[in-house]
Amino acid sequence: MTINEAPLNKKLTVLSFTDDDVRNLSDLEARLMHLGFLAGHTIRVTRKAPLFKEPLLVEVRGRQVALSREEAMLVSVEVQE
């Protein structure tokens, strides 16, 4: 699943970045990695705006990061048990 599909307030493990033919993934990947979205790290989606064009609020390394839904769809995660 992607961050966009992840449930609220559950610990998630970042798996990888999904491939997207439309965008230059290397630039986005570098930005997300700089923000702390690294494979194996734990994140948590804390808020989702009700409209599709609104951002998600994700807790990464104790900080709140806003991602667009488009960006959130590029990061694969799994729910921690």
Describe the structure in brief.
The protein is of the alpha+beta class and 81 residues long. The chain is built from two helices and five strands, in the order E-H-E-E-E-H-E.
What is the β-strand count? 5
Per DSSP, the total helix count is 2
User: What structural class do helix, strand and pairing data support?
Assistant: alpha+beta
Taking pLDDT < 50 over at least 5 consecutive residues as the criterion, the unreliable ranges are: none
Description:
- Helices cover 19% and strands 36% of the residues.
- With 81 residues, the protein is α+β, with helices and mostly antiparallel strands.
- The protein has one domain (3-79): Roll (SH3 type barrels), CATH 2.30.30.90.
- A 5-stranded antiparallel β-sheet has the order 4-3-2-1-5.
SSE arrangement:
Blueprint: E1 11-17, H1 25-35, E2 42-48, E3 56-60, E4 63-67, H2 69-72, E5 75-79
Antiparallel strand pairs: 1-2, 1-5, 2-3, 3-4
Keywords:
alpha+beta; 81 residues
